[in-house]
Amino acid sequence: MSKWGEVQAEIYDEMLHRAFLLLRDFLKMGLALSPDGGIREHSLRHHTIVYRYDGATATIVVIVSPRRKRR
């Protein structure tokens, strides 16, 4: 694997790790997949989770906003 490929893999791993931590935080706050289905959206710390649940499967998309620079 090239050096660039290693860097990309590291970035991907970090993003995936952050997504799981964020999902855990949402679940701790009581986020639940409601049985009526539909699309839901919740935001926390400049991150957004959008999820759709059809009663059998769930599709969860985590949108990670860029970190804001402190002034």
Question: What order do the strands of the largest sheet run in, or round the barrel if closed?
Answer: 1-2-3
- Give the N-terminus to C-terminus distance in angstroms: 38 Å
| Unreliable stretches covering 5 or more consecutive residues | none
Largest sheet report: 3 strands, antiparallel
Features:
37% helix; 71 residues
Report on this model:
Strands 1-2-3 form a 3-stranded antiparallel beta sheet, covered by helices on one side. Strand 1 (39-44) and strand 2 (47-53) form a beta hairpin. The mean pLDDT is 63. It has one helix spanning 3-28; strands spanning 39-44, 47-53, 58-64. It has one domain (3-64). The relative contact order is 0.15. By secondary structure, the protein is of the alpha+beta class.
Question: Topology, pairings included?
Answer:
Layout: H1 3-28, E1 39-44, E2 47-53, E3 58-64
Antiparallel strand pairs: 1-2, 2-3
Question: How would you summarize this macromolecular structure in one to three sentences?
Answer:
37% of the residues lie in helices and 28% in strands. The chain has one helix at residues 3-28, and strands at 39-44, 47-53, 58-64. A 3-stranded antiparallel β-sheet has the order 1-2-3, with helices on one face.
